[in-house]
Amino acid sequence: MSSSVVASPRRRLPSAILDAIAESHALAVCVLSGAVIESSTPGVDAVLGEGAGALGCDLPSIATADEREPLRARLEAFARSREPSVTLSMHVLHPERGVRDIELLGHAVDVAGERRCLAWLSDRTEQARVETQLSYLAYLDALTGLPNRAHFTDQLRKTLAAARKGARMFALLQVDLDGFKAVNDTHGHDAGDALLQVVAQRLGGCSRHSDTVARLGGDEFALLLPHLRLPEDAAIVAGRIVRALEEPIVIGAATCRVGASVGIAVFPDHASDSDSLTAAADAAMYEAKRAGKGRYRLSSGRDSTPPPAVQFVSWSEGHTLGIAAVDAQHRDIMDRINTLGREMKEGLELEALLASLRGLVRASEDHFGYEEALMAKHGLRNAVDHAAVHRRLIDDVRSLTTGLDERGLVLTMRYLQQWLFRHVDSTDRAMAKELRALGVS
Q1: Which residues share a beta bridge with 250?
Q2: Which residue of 58, 241, 278, 417 sits 20 to 30 Å from the alpha carbon of 225, by its own alpha carbon?
Q3: Same domain for 344 and 363?
Q4: Which domain holds residue 166?
Q5: Residues 83 and 116 grouped into a single domain
């Protein structure tokens, strides 16, 4: 047996009720002719500000400056259209409550044979703030304040798309703490949480403003370096991370020690999609752990390709600055770089190579110290800035040499060759010009 539902006739609201609604302060309703208010309830003034609902008020005029013309165009287009309804958002400057987020729900109505918009206005400011906050928290790690895995994954996707479009490289670094479980077991989870917060701060200190540092969960972190000239740049950041996390972390009365194992994968050298890039960085990180922890490893690439060949550098008269002692020190540094390259080609043990590298760093430090003393003696301009460049160069080399393997040594060699001539041809050339003008040779 079937049944049918018969709609009961709808009764119109009594005129007394309609009059009460029209005078209500609780409802913000107005009738618009295009963008101009023809009539309104008192509630419009409560939502938009005193006088906003007055007859003839131009609604877009009370919106923020950048929204006025788009709002006017949309309302006037609705008035000319056959659309049954329209939903708009706008921001208005309430004289007492500041900028408010207003939603307009409009329906087309016929008034004396002419199309009008019956608009309900509601203040969504607090709701919008809550929604924004919830959205913000959904992409943040609550403990450290860093981007979480979801945010990082989204950022990786965007970086990958931009890199493909611009044919540029970028790097993904996977960071896993060494010894974190022992901190939790010995000092408790509160201490472990506090340590993770300090780690997050130190990772931020190792990165650039354009980089993304994220906590993926537990003691796993990741960095995205979107602006990369060479793989050496990523290795420098990784080395800084390892060195920064070697330093003790004081939590209350406890002094905690952890370390970091870092894996690096570079697009497009090691992988061409986000999953493969993440896997490559992860594999490199575990390789760093197996090698003894407290170090970084660069991915060996799609086909485990060997490191690039070592290139040697040669001195030319174009690099001579005319300051005898400085030129001699530059040539000595160049000779040490080439000696290290020859030792690598000869297959010397890693410890012997590291000894040569440490000697090169010491020679560079002595050279920089000599230059700084020379600049101070003669009162050269920019001496402080020049010394800051020296410190950065030495810090970069030390970062590169953290937990070296054969591939890391090649990266270090390539970087040393570049920074020697870049330093000679930029800051040192300007310094030498000033010294020669003072009669120093």
Answers
A1: 255
A2: 417
A3: yes
A4: 140-298
A5: yes
Residue 263 φ then ψ, to 5°? -110, 140
Domain CATH number, residue 206 = 3.30.70.270
How far from each other are the two terminal CA atoms of the chain, in whole angstroms? 113
d(CA 115, CA 169) in angstroms, rounded, equals 57
Q: What is the mean pLDDT of residues 354-382?
A: 86
Identify whether 311 is part of a domain.
Answer: no
- For 180-221, write each residue's pLDDT tens digit: 989 988 988 899 999 999 999 999 999 888 899 999 988 999
Helix crossing, 406-423 with 383-400: angle to 10°? 170
Amino acid present at 133 = Q
Instruction: Say what the pTM is.
Output: 0.60
How far is Cα 340 from Cα 352, in angstroms, rounded to an integer? 10
Q: How do strand 259-267 and strand 295-298 relate by DSSP bridges?
A: parallel
Q: Tokens for 38?
A: 């023809």
- Top pLDDT among 341 and 40 is at 40
Q: Do 64 and 204 lie in a common domain?
A: no
Domain tally for the chain? 3
Which of 88, 104, 129 is the last residue in one of the domains? Answer: 129
**CB-based burial of residue 237 (10 Å sphere; 0-12 exposed, 13-18 middle, 19+ buried)?**
buried
Q: Is 291 helix (H, G, I), strand (E, B) or coil?
A: coil
Length of the chain (residues): 441
**CB within 8 A of 280, min separation 6: which ones?**
172, 263, 265, 270, 271, 299, 301
Show the tokens assigned to 83: 């659309």
Which of the listed residues 110, 129, 148 is the one where a domain comes to its end? 129
Answer yes or no: are the C-beta atoms of 240 and 249 closer than 8 Å. Answer: no
Two tokens, residue 322? 């005319």
123 & 239 share domain? no
199/117 same-domain check: no
Quick: pLDDT tens for 96-108. 888 899 999 999 9
